[in-house]
Design a protein that fits this description.
The relative contact order is 0.20. With 205 residues, the protein is mostly beta strands. β5 and β6 form a beta hairpin. The chain contains 2 helices and 9 strands; from the N terminus they run ααβββββββββ. The longest helix is centred in the N-terminal third of the chain and has 8 residues. It is 6% helix and 65% strand.
Length: 205
């Protein structure tokens, strides 16, 4: 098992590999923080949130053979992700410390990545935006190893749709290089089983 959220992992992995390059890996796939609100002993609402940001910056200083001076260039990669979810759960009578349930929830997610290269007198920037929606049916169980504190596990099937915009380019000054956008957009639709996350730790108050 892994701790990755299946929906967020699929959304993140579909971003342009050419843009993020070999030195930066998108990190916006960690498990969502979830909160439950019990309406009764047998029904609950669930709310989820994931807000993640990662940044990698590399500076290189080299000697310019023409001016015989040190020149510094900067490579900066950034990745911003946001996802929210809402769902409902139906709980059943389990054993003394075991609670079992079924449910369904929906998720909306956004992902934005960018790369900016800067050197004296010039810069180049690339960026891309991704959007996804997903719905999943699940079953799960919580084991209360001490009162009101539990370990949980979920599994089920999820359907997700992701859409990715074209990679946008800009340069400074504007006549440097080829600033044309790549003109490519893509979509993907996935139906997949999942186990999420490995063992969930939670508490009830």
């Amino acid at each position: 098992f892994s701790l990755n959220d299946a929906f967020l992992s699929n959304l993140s992995s579909g971003m342009s590999s050419d843009l993020v390059g070999d030195n930066f890996t998108s990190k916006n796939y960690f498990p969502m923080l979830k909160v439950r609100k019990f309406k009764s002993d047998k029904s609950a609402q669930r709310f989820g949130l994931n807000l993640s940001y990662s940044n990698n910056s590399t500076k290189v200083t080299e000697l310019d053979s023409i001016t015989n001076a040190n020149v510094t260039s900067t490579d900066k990669y950034s990745d911003l992700g946001l996802a929210v979810s809402y769902g409902v759960e139906k709980h059943f009578n389990g054993a003394e410390r075991l609670s079992t349930y079924v449910g369904i929830d929906g998720t909306i997610g956004f992902n934005s990545i960018s790369h900016k290269y800067t050197e004296p007198g010039a810069s180049e920037k690339q960026s891309q935006f991704g959007f996804g929606v997903g719905v999943k049916a699940f079953t799960g169980m919580d084991y209360y190893f001490i009162p009101k504190v539990y370990l949980g596990l979920e599994l089920g099937y999820g359907l997700g749709f992701n859409s990715y915009g074209k990679v946008k380019y800009s340069t400074t000054p504007s006549n440097v290089g080829d600033p044309k956008d790549n003109g490519t957009t893509s979509n993907d639709l996935t139906l997949t089983p999942f186990v999420s996350p490995t063992f969930r730790l939670g508490y009830r108050f």
